[in-house]
Amino acid sequence: MYGRVLVPPAVERELAFAAPVVGPFVVADHPEFEVRSPRDIQRVSSLRVSLGAGEAEAISLAIETNADLLLVDDLRGRKAAVSLGLATAGVLSVLVSAKSRGLVDRVGPLLSVLEDRLNFRVSADLRSRVLRDADESE
Fold it and tell me: Residue 89: what are its φ and ψ, rounded to 5°?
């Protein structure tokens, strides 16, 4: 859906210890994903003051590679990325995009899995907005 996806090492480690419900996501098993370390360690360190390692590395890598889009769900990470001029998307917008491209049939059941099995927090207003954007009803 996104062509090539760059994954910093800290995010690769986070994915390897995913929720027990879904198991680990092994980046090496997916050829469209490429693990790449950010080069600007000073920027990563500066971002680490207020962000987790994954967000800090991802933002730094996105800046270095002039990325079209940064996939990030963490609110602080998203705010920091936007303040640095990066375009962002979270898992919910990825699901809506996947439906519009015919990659998934429905967003609602996937959203329920995120909420029920992975403890992904979504407000009622956001849930309604996502379903509306996906042309689905509650």
Answer: -145, 150
Q: What pTM, to 2 d.p., does this model score?
A: 0.86
> CA dist 112 to 1, 89, 120, 123, Å?
22, 19, 9, 12
Rounded Cα distance between 103 and 95, Å, is 9
Residue 91 has pLDDT above 70, yes or no: yes
Which among 27, 32, 25, 35 has a CA at the least distance from the CA of 1?
32
E strand residue ranges, 18-91: 33-35, 70-71, 88-89
Of 133, 83, 125, 87, nearest in space to 106 by CA = 133
Angle between helix 53-65 and 41-48 (nearest 10): 140
- 117 has a pLDDT exceeding 90: no
For residue 37, give every residue at least 6 positions away whose Cβ sits within 8 Å of its Cβ, in sequence order, or none: 8, 9, 57, 61
Residue 18 has pLDDT above 70, yes or no: no
3-state secondary structure of 11: helix
